[in-house]
Amino acid sequence: MTSLLEVRNVRKTYPRHGEPGRRVVLDDLSLSVAPGDVVCLIGSSGSGKSTLLRCLDLLEPIDDGVIELRGREISDPLVDPRVVRREIGMVFQAYNLFPHLSVLDNCTLAPRRVHGMPAAAAKDKARELLDRFGLGEHVDKHPDRLSGGQQQRVALVRALCTDPALLLLDEITAALDPELVGEVLDIVRSLADAGTTMVLATHEMGFAREVASHVCFLDGGRIVEEGPPAQVLGAPEQARTREFLRRVLPQG
Amino acid sequence: MSGPTTHWQPSERELARRRTRSRQRRHRVVVASIATVIALVVLGAALVLSPGWPRVRATFLDLHHAKESLPSIVDGFWLNVRMFLIAEPIILVAGLALALARQATSAWLVPVRGLAVLYTDVVRGIPTLLLVFLFVFGMPALGLAGIPNSIFFWATVALVVSYSAYVAEVLRSGIESVHPSQLASAEALALSRAQTMRHVVVPQAVRRVVPPLLNDFVSLQKDTALVASVGLFDALFAAADYGNFNFNFTPYVVAALFFIAMTVPLARLCDVLARRLARRERAGAL
């Protein structure tokens, strides 16, 4: 099976005390994502999950290694990041909707301006997606009038409106209270069932166990353990994975 | 994060990418240099090849007259400098007071709020030059005991009155741009309204409006030259005085250079400060 996304030996550092390269955030990290995969990145804060997602969307330059999308190296300086991002959707923890645009305009901005879709078609498509995810009555409102769960669902729809080949979700439920988490995860679940390729950082272990095709446990910028959810979450081999799961899972 | 700092050596691919990036950088530098040179050559040629250029050079760019007029322009410019060094801090304080007055919520301060609105509306509507005339000639004419008669004093007052209205509006827009959640968290910490303004809102507001504030201050520095019209011997008046006597306009160019030399460093300083703040506050944030 050819992979959609191939990450090989990626290294990412940040400066510490003004010295470049002193803080290693991703250390020789490799990952392979096949079409239809749902890869869940788990690990404590600062383990590098978010940084990895940002590097995949070329929002951060990497210090070494190779990232390939459909066999083409996208970490090449000669590749235009905007061309790559046309194929990738990203959703952030803090929604990051544009407060000055209505829900509908948030969702049609990129299809119209970047993908050259006619306004009517973009609107129809956005309306249909918003309807499907229970946001039909909010299309003309501005984001700040919606609840956190609704805003995050809009952010998902905004990412989906451009038909991305790959969806990156960065702890999209971390800012929501528990009763709103469900409505957002339901969408992700239905996307997974429809075969959408996703890489998501999450703290929801139950959800990862249910939806993931592949779970990666990150620690100190490395993938310490990876495999099917039943194995990584059910019978972890590494001591660090066991310790992490003991802390996040109430039953131990 | 305590990433293991192993003996990492960049891979061949990474070294190749670095070479590509530095090639791209060099390419950008070359393009930028060529574009700059072309722009300068075109502008210079348009100037030098224009039919009136010899005359313009003789009347506006005469080194001899520049040297001759320099001492009196320096003396005059010192007056401009003193005037805005005095006026600027007062304007900042007065503008902030006006902006805060418009934000006041206390019932006792309602008339103050009204006055602040009236003040900005009226003052901004009057040309600054007119304000200078009104204050310089009008105030001494009142014949009130104990108020100064100096032209310098009243011209400075006119500038303070005029610019504090502009600065107040700039600061107000900054204050109103601070997100309501900031007010909520300050209130939740039981800060008083005044403490909220002092410690939470105004510091954020000022940072956001530094560029337009700078705009107003640069404008003020130039408008100190308005006092030439009421007979104060500033840089512009000195230049005009020399020019009219010697039938040469070079002193005007000299005076202009002084004003530019004053404003450019200030603008660069503000840029540097703003960048440093942005780096500190936004590092790593989404």
Quick recap:
The complex is a heterodimer of chains A (252) and B (286). Chain A has 252 residues and is an alpha/beta fold. In chain A, 36% of the residues lie in helices and 26% in strands.
Mean pLDDT of chain A: 92
**Low-confidence runs of chain A:** none
Helix content of chain A: 25-40%
Average of the residue pLDDT scores of chain B: 88
| Backbone shape of chain B | flat
Number of strands of chain B: 0
Per CATH, the superfamily of the largest domain in chain B is: MetI-like
Percentage beta strand of chain A? 25-35%
- The number of distinct β-strands of chain A equals 10
Helix count of chain A, per DSSP? 9
Radius of gyration of chain A: 18 Å
Describe the structure.
In chain A, strand 7, helix 6 (178-193) and strand 8 form a beta-alpha-beta unit. The model of chain A has no long low-confidence stretch (mean pLDDT 92). Chain A has helices spanning 49-56, 81-85, 103-113, 119-132, 148-160, 178-193, 205-211, 229-234, 239-248, and strands at residues 5-16, 19-33, 38-42, 64-69, 72-73, 88-91, 166-170, 198-201, 214-219, 222-227. A 6-stranded mixed sheet of chain A has the order 6-7-8-3-9-10, sandwiched between helices. Chain A has 252 residues and is of the alpha/beta class. Chain B is an all-alpha fold and 286 residues long. Chain B has 2 domains: 19-49; 63-280, MetI-like (MetI-like fold, Orthogonal Bundle), CATH 1.10.3720.10. Chain B is 79% helix and 0% strand. Chain B has helices spanning 12-48, 53-60, 63-103, 110-125, 128-141, 151-177, 180-188, 193-208, 210-223, 235-246, 250-282. In chain B, helix 3 (63-103) packs across helix 11. The two termini of chain B are 18 Å apart. The relative contact order of chain B is 0.11. The mean pLDDT of chain B is 88. The chains are: A alpha/beta (252), B mainly alpha (286).
